[in-house]
Amino acid sequence: MSRKPTVLDVANHTPITFELLDKVYALQSSMSAEERNDNDLQVARIVDVLKHGGMHDEYQLRASVVSIRLRQRALELFVQDGGAAGFTLPTSEVGRTKVHQDLFRCAGEEPLLSIEGQPRFDPDNFRRRLLSFTQTAGSA
Q1: What pLDDT does residue 1 have?
Q2: Which residues of the chain have pLDDT under 70?
Q3: What backbone torsions phi and psi does residue 134 show, to the nearest 5 degrees?
Q4: pLDDT value for 94
Q5: Rounded Cα–Cα distance for residues 107 and 20 (Å)
Q6: pLDDT, position 38
Q7: Quick check: 74 and 107 in contact, CB under 8 A?
Q8: What are residue 98's phi and psi, to 5 degrees?
Q9: How far apart are alpha carbons 1 and 16 in whole angstroms?
């Protein structure tokens, strides 16, 4: 007997491209603080981005929104826990942080786990993936 897929299963079977995650974050950064706190509005805006990109299948829309939102939360927790030191910059807005694009690349692909009821990335695996995207600049 097979079990019904969880939201984490759906998210893990719905990887999100760097470009899509970057578009969503750009859209959200242009929103006011009040708008960013409105979950329904954020979901509606993400659906608009997905539809504008050509996605119209209802299941794929829902799965993509779930994947994006869970990955955003997991990335937020990863950054808050200090896992992204050296890949973030503070902004002038309290509670906001600029993150390096390689964090988006990792967040779009890294499997999600549930830890204490929250979507999370395995910190060691995430850092390994992050380092694989990061290339040394310059020469010795």
Answers
A1: 58
A2: 1, 88-97, 135-140
A3: -85, 125
A4: 56
A5: 11
A6: 93
A7: yes
A8: -85, 135
A9: 30
Per-residue pLDDT tens digits for 108-120: 999 999 999 999 9
Report how far Cα 11 is from the mean position of its chain's Cα atoms: 11
Contacts of residue 74, defined as CB under 8 A and 6 or more positions apart, other chains included, come to: 107, 110, 112, 118, 119, 120, 121
**Structure tokens, 10:** 């759906």
The single-letter code of the amino acid at 91 is T
Residue 106, classed as helix, strand or coil, is: helix
Tokens in use for 19? 């470009």
Structural tokens at position 50: 């997905």
Confidence (pLDDT) at 8: 93
Angle at 63 between CA 60 and CA 69, to 5 degrees: 135
CA dihedral 25, 137, 110, 19 (to 10 degrees): 40
Q: What pLDDT score was predicted for residue 138?
A: 44
